[in-house]
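A reminder before we start the practical. When you read a complex entry, don't treat the lines as separate problems. The point of joint prediction is that each chain is placed relative to the others, so the output describes one connected object in space. Small molecules and nucleic acid strands, if listed, are placed in the same frame. In the example below there are two entries. Take a minute to note the order of the lines before looking further.
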Amino acid sequence: MKTPREILLHHHQHAQPKLDAIRRAVLATRTERGNESISLREMLRSLRWHLLGMSAVWFLVLILHSDAGRAPLLAATMPKPPPPQVMIASMREHRRLLSEMADAQPADRERRELFVPKPHSECRREFSIA
Amino acid sequence: MLGVVEIEQLPVSEARAGEAAAWDALFRRYQLPLYVYIFELVRDEQTSLDLVQEAFINAARHIGSLREDAKFGSWLFGIAHQKCIQRWRKQAREEMLRDEFANAPIEVEIAPDDLLIREEQEAEFMGLLNQLPSPQRSVLLLHFVEEFSLEDIAGITGVSIGTVKSRMHYAKKSLRKLLEEKS
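Here is the predicted structure of the whole assembly.
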């Protein structure tokens, strides 16, 4: 006595060699596809320097772009110049301080006023006399 | 002697990882049962071989869609079943599915060896199997060849478990009757 499974499998046993061939063909197709994916990987590997260069360029472009976007922001954060009235008042104050300082050193001022440059001929003469 | 299907550890996870040896083992394990199932449905050798090949290629391509490794067998048979239906549709030879027993509330307890056939009845058995309507033949083959559960058969054939039970019941009943008549 046999089970239906035994009968069925035994009945179709003759197809086994053809099925083996199919199995091998399918496995070979899978392997070829695997090799294709490997060759794709190799191709990408050969292009790695180009890709790296392009990535660097894009990175630079990105940085420049972000800086350009940030420039107005920086301008906005910078302190505003004081109004003209304040600037004029400040300049006057500076000038007054300078004049006071100048008045505080009369010896230098006198020396400067007393110094009168002599003609070159006179200088030479003095020198020659000496 | 070809033994009854036992709980086995199949290298499905290895196949997922792309190991050629694992695929070889899986294909080797299922090639004959799959061929038997397909042949008994389409009744043409070359078509059956083509469909086995297509099922293998599809399985290798879509292994990612398999959720449970333990269900590899029923998943593969499901692919093959769909291929058979596609082929039938293509050849405009699809039989109208006869679901006249689909809703019959039948409880069947089935065991794979509850139908034992004498040696002299083997040829008759093969002939009688072919006389059954395709839906009944399909569930009976899945039960005989791989001992799939009713749930698995329902998944493979795309019908409810109730329909599978009904078809199984009437298929066995018809087969017994035919065998008794012959003997």
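Discuss with your neighbour: The CA atoms of residues 122 and 128 of chain A lie 10 Å apart. What might explain this?
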